[in-house]
Design brief:
This protein is of the alpha+beta class and about 400 residues long. The protein has 12 helices and 7 strands.
């Protein structure tokens, strides 16, 4: 089999310092307005543009194609820092980076330079996979049909995270005539596409996760879903781990600043100043350690996905299979542990300030709310079962799953 993108290129990565120096100033600029966006529910259209302009959305694109050539470990290190600035942006770009990853994998066997040019030009891709309502497991209402020599798509998608900011949709659908599952690459700027900002969650409210309705929308490219990159579920989960890690660091930073500034103390406390109270310091210290652990676990799991990416280019099916299993299991293990760590620390940190921490002006609850919503994706109880089944019975993890209406008993 020929290779357009060999293994040596697949293993290359950019210089860490170069990446940090390039993107950290933008992350800091984003962080400056996060509290206002949170309190006023301002979608980060401007901040997404900043990231596009500096090239962040093409950070994984190979250097020879105009990108930074970052490894997966470097990508998720940067995403942790972005999440510390504003976790909404990390989640909003989740669908984009997944589509980029898919095109990187596809480049082994077919030229994807047309997509790389779009990414380098700042075009981003939003997610449009999930259907709700009466849709049963395995059903796909969104259908692609051929009309007058052109593919057209009709349907409705929910939780279309990031799509309101995007030029493209990574749209999961079925071809009406054949029933084949496909990704329909669809432009958002057309009359047949309507995107609503109607996400009503109590956290992660500025991710642009709403409803997308498609009526006779033109499809630019059909991609067989069976060709999707094999470590995709691990990759998607890593975004949640990076977001949680960033939230943890942001929460520790905010609470320690509040502790430094606090002048009120309790008569039965342990010092004349809050920043000298040993029990308060203990709470901050434990939360800091938990944030550190969350980041370390996330990066370890990212390394496993990097190995899966490299195995794809080695063209050794058994090696690739085993690497995908490791990537999936490690991302699941990370989810189980990190979710608990971050939910605990974003709650326990309130013990450092007392009732004043509940002030709506401070919005300190945003850390827990955002972490709680992220931790609710891909239910942990099922991931724990999958890990256990692998450990005890060597049963391979599920790489692709769906959600839909169950079968009601007739009464």
């Amino acid at each position: 089999m020929g290779s357009l993108h060999d293994i040596s290129t697949a293993t290359q990565s950019a210089d860490d310092k170069v990446l940090i120096n390039k993107y950290r100033p933008v992350f800091e600029k984003i962080a400056a307005g996060t509290l206002q966006r949170e309190q006023q529910r301002i979608l980060p259209f401007e901040q997404i543009q900043w990231l596009k302009q500096v090239g962040f959305t093409a950070v994984r694109v190979p250097v020879e194609q105009g990108g930074d050539g970052a490894s997966l470990t470097q990508l998720f290190q940067l995403l942790i820092e972005l999440s510390k600035a504003d976790s909404n942006l990390t989640q909003a770009l989740r669908g984009h980076f997944a589509f980029v990853e898919d095109r990187l994998n596809a480049h082994r066997d077919s030229d994807q330079s047309h997509w790389f040019k779009r990414f380098v030009a700042g075009e981003i891709v939003g997610n449009a996979w999930t259907e709700i309502g009466a849709v049963k497991i395995g059903e796909v209402i969104t259908q692609v049909t051929g009309r007058e020599g052109q593919w057209r798509v009709d349907g409705k998608k929910y939780y279309t995270t990031g799509s309101i900011f995007a030029e493209w949709l990574d749209l999961y659908a079925q071809v009406t005539k054949t029933g084949e599952s496909v990704i329909a690459a669809t432009r958002t700027a057309q009359d047949g596409v309507k995107i609503d900002d109607d996400w009503d969650g109590f956290g992660q409210r500025m991710t642009g996760s709403g409803t997308t309705t498609l009526v006779n929308a033109e499809v630019d490219e059909l991609i067989p879903f069976d060709s999707r990159f094999k470590y995709q579920t691990a990759f998607y989960q890593l975004f949640h781990l990076a977001a949680l890690s960033g939230i943890a660091y942001a929460a520790v930073d905010e609470f320690k600043q509040q502790v430094r500034q606090r002048t009120r103390v309790f008569s039965h406390g342990n010092g004349e100043r809050t920043d000298q109270d040993v029990q308060v310091l203990q709470v901050i210290g434990k939360a800091s350690a938990q944030a550190y652990a969350a980041e370390a676990i996330t990066l370890q799991a990212a390394r496993a996905s990097q190995q899966a990416y490299q195995a794809h280019f080695a063209q050794d099916e058994e090696r690739e299979k085993q690497a995908n299993i490791v990537a999936e299991i490690e991302s699941a293990q990370g989810q189980v542990v990190i979710s608990d760590l971050v939910l605990e620390l974003t709650s326990k940190l309130f013990d450092t300030l007392g009732a004043s921490a509940a002030s709506s002006k401070k919005s300190l609850d945003r850390f827990w709310r955002n972490a709680r919503v992220i931790s609710s994706h891909n239910p942990i109880i099922y991931k724990e079962k999958i890990i256990g089944d692998w450990e005890v019975n060597a049963k391979e993890p599920i790489f692709v799953w769906q959600i839909g209406a169950g079968v009601k008993e007739k009464g």
